[in-house]
Give the backbone structure.
Amino acid sequence: MADTELQHVSRLRDLDDDALNQVLELSGRLKGRHSRGDLVGRTVGLLFFRGSLRTRASFETAVHQLGGHALNLTAMSDFWELEENEGVVMDGRAPEHIKDAATVLSRYCHALAIRPALGGSHWDSDRNDRHIKGWTRHASVPVINMESALWHPLQALADLLTLREHLGRLKKKRVAIVWVHSPTPASPAVVHSLLHAVLRSGMNVSLSHPSGYELDDEVMDEAHALSKEYGSEIDLGTPPEKAVRDAHVVYARSWQSIESYGNPTLQASQRSKHTNWRIDEKLLASSPDARLMHAMPVRRNVEITDSVLDGPRSLLYEQAANRLWSQMALLIHLLR
Ligand code: CP
């Protein structure tokens, strides 16, 4: 069904600076204007191999608002496990290969958006995003990553839109990315995509996390290269009190340690030493104008206190709402 030049969005870098700007500008123009007919007669397949609230609801709504049909499929209830390795004898759990699913669904759908399951055992394996790569290799329509182990480009788009709306010009403004404690931390995907997104916007970044929560090495190598290219600065290993001081935005996120990835006992023991890593009024006192962002879901009074979350600094609901507009703009960009 591909009737345009095929472009996948596995990560934000798949959109060059011009495309990224166009998508963000269109997102702003779309805001508040619900119904458009850009996707009339088109179907977007949304495949979830693990749970989601915002991504699923905002993507389905985005397709609907553009006049298209969202085909929402949940693995294990609507279909089955898919084999992602090539050339294997398929005598294991998965009764179908991604190659066949992607080829068939490309004949029904004009784009496919995928949230893969995470292996959760070996970072070196999960970081390869093999599942997303399987879809991009075999689909003949655009494939959009709805959050893999390594990247969450859709969240980064909404984050950039939110930052632009609240800070205007982003160059030389500063975001403090602060690790917070959660008993159910996510993969570092949100922070990886955010870090590259803000560096590409010329923002300076203070990254604050306990020792052992360093981000993926290759993502960091690219981050340093981006900071040189875009004239932005990265400040690593900053204590949270210093990171948030005079920051324009504090972005809170809990992510798993790559060091102990796949070892829940070690992860829990490591985390238990950092339960005081939380965003509260006291931490933010040195930064009276800083706004607060978080990709959600958020554990109230564990990651962020109620008073901050419900207070005037919080951009969380606007950030979540921006998932809708930025995904509408991305779909128009990919399928125009
Ligand atoms: N931020 C985000 O992707 O939320 P969901 O996991 O609910 O989709």
Remarks:
- The CA atoms of residues 187 and 208 lie 16 Å apart.
- The chain has a mean pLDDT of 96.
